[in-house]
Write a structure and sequence with these properties.
With 422 residues, this protein is of the alpha/beta class. The chain is 43% helix and 18% strand. The protein has an eight-stranded mixed sheet with strand order 10-9-8-11-12-13-14-15. A seven-stranded mixed sheet has the order 1-2-3-4-5-6-7, sandwiched between helices. Helix 12 packs parallel to helix 13 and helix 15 crosses helix 16.
Length: 422
């Protein structure tokens, strides 16, 4: 503990890591925090940050933002409300309490880790440790942690100790610190006849003093989440078919049949069966944006495709999101009319699709009627196919596959393929 900025450099020199806790803010203390963090970054020492109540007060947010200009902490330990501030996610916070909101805490933690390129320890009934890619959950602990003010401060200090031991692996350090603290608290509370905050605290300190790695390993309830980003993932952006034979449902089945994990952005909902489409309803544009944002915080999509996009506004919104987020190569299926004759793309959206989405397409897969609409030309012969494919390529799509199943005079359906290199 130091209150003199003048000794910050010397303290960091003899320390293996520092923990910054913004619980008590006054000008000399803020100056000392900044001096300590500056020295730590200069000396390449790990920094643990505890952003106490940052989600509830504008002044604390201002101080945290100032501290972040100095560098990126090695590890940030906070509750859901505090970590949500770093993730840029709305959360209802009241002082130092975790508060409440609609977002999944794992999504919040991963978003914060990816946004700041650091390790996050989000504490609560289940502790979440993530570096933005890997996730570990620890479900030990005790409800007394929520009633004992200072539990989070203790854990932040413990994080500093473990990061000092594992400076090159803050993710593992955070796991070990959180597991040790949660197991100690759980075992102390279980042994107490009447667990109360006043008597719990000194016993917790004593137990942490003599707890062993074996005790932690034998007691911890730890789950390492599936490393989703090691598994290939694809995105379908389409309408929902209640009959399951087309649209998003057919895409998901096809994608996962090829051992790829399917994600989706639902653009519209249809009442549909094998007899046709009885009704359709485009979803609000804001919900389209939220679906893209949600996927971006948690998945590493390697390829995407589009299907039914409803109207010009939805086409534009999808194109904007594809330009904003890296969803991999785009396969554009310009769905306009169902086999039964139902219109799935408004007339005013065709020009928008040409100008907004075609230039983004790595692969364009129109059927014959869709090709005629996009090019404005009739297709009767092989030469017509070739000319139309080159027209589509000139609009910006790289590789063209024109599906030929609609030609009346053919005994077999023949597709026409034009590669990007001609």
């Amino acid at each position: 503990m130091s209150n003199a900025p003048e000794e910050a450099e010397g303290i960091v020199t003899i320390a293996q890591a520092i923990t910054i806790n913004i619980g008590s803010l006054w000008t000399p203390q803020i100056q000392e925090m900044m001096a300590l963090m500056t020295a730590a970054y200069q000396q390449q020492k790990p920094v643990v940050l505890d952003p106490v109540a940052v989600g509830s007060l504008a002044y604390r947010q201002q101080i945290i933002d100032q501290l972040l200009t100095l560098g990126t902490p090695t590890l940030i330990r906070g509750n859901a409300g505090e970590i949500a501030y770093f993730a840029g996610i709305d959360w209802q916070v009241n002082g130092i309490d975790a508060g409440h909101g609609n977002s999944d805490p794992v999504i919040i933690a991963k978003a914060a880790a990816n946004r700041l390129h650091t390790t996050i320890l989000l504490t609560g009934p289940t502790d979440i440790i993530t570096d933005g890619q890997r996730v570990t959950l620890i479900s030990n602990g005790t409800s007394i942690f929520q009633t004992h003010v200072g539990s989070g401060d203790m854990l932040s200090g413990l994080c500093g100790a473990f990061v000092a031991v594992h400076p090159a692996d803050p993710y593992q350090a955070a796991i070990e610190a959180a597991a040790t603290f949660a197991v100690a608290g759980e075992l102390v509370a279980t042994a107490m006849e009447t667990p109360l905050p006043g008597t719990f605290y000194p016993q917790l300190i004593d137990y942490l003093f003599h707890i062993t790695p074996a005790k932690v390993a034998n007691t911890v309830q730890l789950m390492r989440c599936l490393l989703m980003n090691e598994f290939p993932q694809a995105l379908t952006i389409a309408g929902s078919d209640s009959g399951g034979g087309a649209g998003m449902q057919a895409d998901i089945k096809t994608i996962q049949e090829r051992h790829v994990f399917a994600t989706n952005v639902v653009v519209a909902i249809t009442a549909q069966n094998t007899l046709g489409v009885q009704a359709s309803l485009p979803l609000p544009l804001s919900l389209i944006n939220q679906q893209f944002a949600s996927l971006a915080t948690d998945f590493k999509i390697r390829a995407c495709k589009t299907g039914m996009l409803a109207d010009a506004e939805h086409v534009t919104t999808v194109a904007e999101n594809l330009r904003h987020y890296d969803c991999g190569p785009l396969t554009l299926d310009p769905v306009m009319i169902t086999k039964g004759g139902a219109q799935l793309l408004a007339d005013d959206a065709i020009d928008t699709l040409r100008t907004e989405l075609l230039p983004l397409a790595t692969v364009l897969t129109p059927n014959l009627p869709e090709t005629e609409v996009l090019t404005g030309s009739r297709i009767k012969t092989t030469a017509d196919f070739k000319q139309a494919a080159h027209q589509l390529q000139q609009m910006g799509a790289k590789n063209i596959i024109i599906k030929g199943g609609h030609l009346d005079h053919q005994s077999q359906a023949a597709d026409y393929v034009l590669y990007a290199d001609g």
